[in-house]
Write a structure and sequence with these properties.
The chain is α/β, with parallel strands linked by helices. It has 3 domains: about 5-85, Arc Repressor Mutant, subunit A (Orthogonal Bundle); about 90-160 and about 270-300, 3-Layer(aba) Sandwich (D-Maltodextrin-Binding Protein, domain 2), CATH 3.40.190; about 160-270, 3-Layer(aba) Sandwich (D-Maltodextrin-Binding Protein, domain 2). About 45% of the residues lie in helices and about 25% in strands. It has helices at about 5-15, 20-25, 30-45, 60-85, 100-105, 105-115, 130-140, 185, 200-210, 230-235, 250-255, 285-300; strands spanning about 50, 55, 90-95, 120-125, 145, 155-170, 180, 190-195, 220-225, 240-245, 260-265, 270-280. Strands 3, 4, 5, 6, 7, 8, 9, 10, 11 and 12 form a 10-stranded mixed β-sheet that branches. The protein has a two-stranded antiparallel ribbon with strand order 1-2. Strand 1 (about 50) and strand 2 form a beta hairpin.
Length: about 300
Amino acid sequence: MDLRLVEIFCAVYEERSFSKAARRLGLSQPTISGHIKALETGLDSRVFDRLGREIQPTRAGQLLYKYGRQIGELKQSAEEAMARFLNRLEGRLLLGASTIPGEHLLPANIGAFKGAYPKIDINLVIRDSQAIVEGVKAGAFDLGFVGARLPDEGLLFEPFSSDRLILVAPPIPEWKTSGGILSFESLRAKPLLVREHGSGTRMMLERALERHNLSLRDFNVVAALGSTSAIKQGIKANMGASFLSSIAVEDELASGAMRRIDVSGFEHNQRDFFTVVHTRRAASPLRSAFLEFLGDRMRGHGERSLARR
């Protein structure tokens, strides 16, 4: 099979449209149609059913796409590997990260990486950990950074940094405690803000509470919010307190906008942040270069290093 025809077929399959595929590839629609016809002639099988203005892949088309996508990924990896060998590494790296890595750990590292590899374009998408893991599985991200390890045989999670969950509250009399320590029993009566389902922060909090035979149902949860920024705004508006990563609230604690409260028995609450990759996809040289670069920088800062792969 002609590799170019397979690439064009994959574009049409993903767009479900000859015209959209033509725009994506910078070709004319008749050219796209001609190439698909040539592919079908060579295979002696139709790969699309034309249903008026719509097209649907046939079973043969579905089978071809399964391998065509792998061929495309291998071709890209081969091009990137050769570019790296010749010191001409370039291309696009798609990163997905949950809130804490995406907003606090990665930006400075991405900036430094761009300084070392100016021809690599990096796209960073920030969502909750569950969405990032699903994106890595689907191939939407070359590499993910999440705040919780989720069970999946096809994915590899490796720790690259760590932090602690701490309880932070607004600096108002309602949250003033003797010695800055609060018991779980006293906390249960107070308003609590939590992250949404799928958040790594929430997963880690729920696991920590389980060690005390508690769950969020035992607390007065007044709101579940979709980002750490939203939680922090809620705390500043005196809606309640929340368990957040200490990294995310360094500035607020330093300025006095928030108050840290120690919870009795909640001392051992370290959380890890993980890189996540799909073990069944070819390792991109761009991904490998970024992991090596990030690992070197974090070792230089005395933080946990990334495992080489």
